[in-house]
Amino acid sequence: MSVSFCGLDLRHRVINGSGTFDAIAAQRVFGDELYERFPFTAFVSKTITLAPREGNPPPRLWEAQAGLINSIGLPNKGLDRYLSEDLPQLAKLGVPLFTNVMGSTAQELSRLVEACAQFTQITAIELNVSCPNVKTGLDIGADPAQLQKLLSTLRPLTSKPLIVKLTPNASDVPACAQAAESAGADAVSLINTLRASALDPRRAPRASARWLGGGSGGLSGAAIRPVALAQVAAVTERVEIPVIGMGGVQTSRHAQDLIDVGATLVAVGTESFRDPTAAARIALDLDK
Amino acid sequence: MVAPFGRRTVQITRSDTVGAYRVLHAADPEGPAPVAGQFAMLQSVERWGGGEDERPYLPRAFSYARFAGGEAQFLLEDVGPGTNRLDELTVGDEMWLLGPLGVGFSAPADGRRALLVGGGVGIAPLVIWQDTLLEQGTQALALLGFRDRARAQAAELLRDARVASDDGSVGHHGLVLDLLQRELDQDAHAVVYACGPAAMLEAVRAECERRKLPAQLALESGMACGFGACFGCVVPSRDGYLRVCVDGPVIDAARLERVDQHAGASP
User: Fold this and answer.
1) Which end of chain A is more exposed for a tag (fewer CB within 10 A), N or C?
2) Chain B residues close to A30, C-beta within 8 Å
3) Is the pTM for the entire model greater than 0.90?
């Protein structure tokens, strides 16, 4: 059963969450079988920034109760090397490519969007607005007015679909979705990871015994599934544009729940770590 | 060795107690034979989760200790919710297996002998590596360190191993590094292959750097996926962070600075 999303005709409803599947590394590990049985109906890149980032110091992972806290820190090669080295390889996947970008200012994001706009291999651009604002400390996507202003700047720069990856660490997520829609976003995706922390049980003093090298991280996996369902349902009630729902999806029933509350596509993230072909299994079961 | 895309079900055929450890045998007739040093991600099909703190959740990485006749062997020590669940599996139970994964060991060049240095449950990849080297006619002396006698019993998995123990209950009373230094003083025309706790690996790395000896270290790190997706298992190197799962787990020591600055799995 095909599905329409932002003018695209997709084979099924399941994509990956940004930063949860490295198709280039996976091709080295699994060979061409990855292409033959590629599980996602569209591929979302990890977050690309203007300058290269090496990511956070380890440890970067903490296994939580039915979930995972990660503090990876968005390691990437930077825009130029992404476009020259990775994009040609990702184009071989044979599915539409959504490039996820993040900048800490409107100027940075503008440069990223303008650059991506020039490449036909990129089908859509997803904006990661979970970057903290240097002045306020809040995620740049947490304030509806600020998000609307940002989208108004970026919208004229490309005719490609713009997807806003909403931050769940906001007091009014549906208002943020509405702000994005009013400023011309083509779709929204949610939920990103929930801010979370863990203490190293073997260290003292306790208050500063943070396990993660980055201090705190983001929680994903089964533990956040009910939160995702609530936020996706609240957003689909308020916007007309398509919604990509994600958060703890492990089976077709979890995916169907998100679809039932109005999501057009569903993304699989942490479950791919446990089962790299999970998205294909979920897509197949959804069709039954 | 390229891995099949997707985890597959394997059935436990044997579960042997070896001192303080367990050797888990699993029938994997479809599985490609691993290169020594490669690993697999394992999780039980039933009840993976719901243990202490509602864990385990993610699969766990284990080096292949042996692979023969379509049967894989893994060495494990019950230290947390994941290993605890795998430890209680019995014949007929099923696991999900993804693998073989990662980069394995490569054989010594220019007539050097192989010195295999292992610590604790980290001796696992040295078992299959010694098998491979001896088959090829390469000398492969095993030097193994353990905390105590119960753990040191696993030395029987390798041939003619020399043993050190922290408590002096078996073999040399002290560090496996002492055994390595003694060997290298006698004949330094060698390549060192090491796997074990971070402090042991760092001591071996520093010793080989001092003596300008080639060394290959099999590293461990907390890992969510095993195939390069999560970027969680990084170790610092001279060229930035390396992913232990796809750039390793076996990494040339010359590429590494300190190897005790990254952490293993969540406790």
Assistant:
1) C
2) 2-5, 227
3) yes
